[in-house]
Amino acid sequence: MVRFGLGPRFGARTRWIALALAAAFSPVLVAGSAFAQNNQDTIGNGSTAGVAVDAEGVLRRTTVADPTGALSRQRVQEALSRLDRNVARPSKLRKISLTRLERELTKRIAAGEEADDVMRNLAGLTRVQYVFCYPESGDIVIAGPAEAWGEAPSGRMLGIASGRPVVQLDDLIVALRAFPPGNRKISPFIYCSIDPTPEGLSRMHQFLQEIGRQFVGPPKPGFEQFVVEQLRDKLGMQVITVGGVPASTHFAQVMVEADYRMKLIGIGLEQAPVRLRSYVDRANPHQVARNALQRWYFVPNYECVRVSDDSLAMELVGEGVKLVGEAEVVGNNGQRSAAKRGNPASQAFVNAFTKVYPQLAERSPVYAQLRNCIDLAVAAAYIRDQDFYGLAEWHPGVFENEADYPVETLNPPKQVASAVNSMWKGAMLVTPIGGGVQMRPTEAISPTNLMEDKDHVVAKARTEIDLSKLAPDQWWWD
Q: DSSP strand E in 301-380: where?
């Protein structure tokens, strides 16, 4: 949050203007509405909100309209008619052998074919709950709930019954490539960030000083919109940075979209689908250090892994995601440094956002997708660090090779125009900007964060799975 006064003369004679600003980005896929009735990822009148990335890497906002729900119903029928009855059946615990899946995918590629729909959508898996290793059969298995799926009008692949996004093969491969077999000392920092440039912040700072000196008395009609447009112009384009995974992957763009959508909720430009007061509704400018920049970003809840005594089984528990905040100070030249005091309104907002995250994930698929990506990254880190590759004698092949199975197929995000929302708020300009997603998956599997497998529940879940009856080409089962 940037807190700037507009000048003593202006402020003494009238209310001062308060503005909320944030910059963000969303991937090519429009933020989607689920097939389930409880999903409200919309902007009203049956339109789903979202943006696209053009060939130059610039954000463009867009919507998809489905006012009567007819398109969604059509997609449901198409999906049900296309899917095999067995894979379309809901399952509390669907199992997928990564080693067998990779072997069958290798055969298809060798035959000049692509991954089929069941492979691309991991047999309808909507959450990774377990990871198991079976050295005796050479299998590494992930397991979780699954259901029939279809493509929503937004372009997302969603479960037909629940509206939850389906875990994507591309995202799984991105996670596995981030933690390849071998060097356990490598601990990639996976992140995205959307930030104003120092030049943009400096121009904004100068503009606010100038406007405070120039204007005296009550603001004239159109003044507020003038300030909004000028702030947007002075800040200019903001920079999108992705690290730890390729920016041109679906995994990366889920991170950036989730950050984008969270900021829009925070500044009141998007209505949350659950009860959640925005940051600007909570903000009290007098409680914030002058020239303060507020950053919000997602991190994993690192206490999310339960492991069996022999380490051959692990369970991912909890929601796995939380929102945190930090304050910085912006200097005249646009450079940022740590602020000496925090912001109670910002802290209240991130705490509330974290608390309702499970409900948000149910109603707005991008947050469930972010949770799935974090789960996949933690699972991939565990598979590598426990050397499941060596135990199963598995050499991933096409899962490791971009030339054989490309996942870097989307326009990488590079920059986005600043988005500004205006409102009256006391006597200061409040501007929350900055943020992102930050994850260090290996922290979740460090000894200090691991949860005890009381009553050997995780170990029992592994031993109850029987792989002996699987057909040679079978890679998923219930």
A: 305-307, 313-316, 321-330, 336-338
pLDDT band per the 50, 70, 90 thresholds, residue 169? very high
Q: How far apart are CA 75 and CA 78, in angstroms?
A: 5
Tokens read off for 260? 């984008």
Domain ranges of the chain: 2-477
Summarize the confidence of residues 29-51 as an average pLDDT: 44
Is residue 205 helix, strand or coil? Answer: helix
pLDDT band at 471; cut points 50, 70, 90: very high
Calpha distance 477→206 (Å, rounded):
63
> Rounded to whole angstroms, how far apart are CA atoms 56 and 33?
27
- The H-or-E segment that residue 52 falls in is strand 47-53
Judged against a pLDDT cut of 60, whether residue 31 lies above it is answered with no
C-beta of residue 376 within 8 angstroms of C-beta of residue 444: no
Q: Could you tell me if 152 and 32 are in contact, meaning their C-beta atoms sit under 8 angstroms apart?
A: yes
If one compares 102 and 46, the residue with the highest pLDDT of the two is 102
| Tens-place pLDDT, residues 398-425 | 999 999 999 999 999 999 877 776 655 5
45 pLDDT higher than 90: no
pTM of the complete model = 0.87
Report which of 416, 417, 420 is spatially closest to residue 268, judged by C-alpha positions: 420
Amino acid at 3: R
Cα(129)–Cα(91) distance, integer angstroms: 13
DSSP letters spanning 448-463: TTPEE-GGGHHHHHHH
157 HSE (CA, 13 A, CB side):
22
Quick: pLDDT tens for 357-385: 999 999 889 999 999 999 999 999 999 99
How many Cβ atoms sit within 10 Å of the Cβ of residue 207?
Answer: 17
Q: Which of 60, 8, 427, 21 is nearest to 229 (CA)?
A: 21
Q: Rounded to whole angstroms, how far apart are CA atoms 317 and 447?
A: 16
Q: What is the dihedral of CA 258, 76, 127, 439, to 10 degrees?
A: -20
Instruction: Report the amino acid identity of residue 225.
Output: Q
What span, in angstroms and rounded, lies between the C-alpha atoms of 164 and 158?
Answer: 5
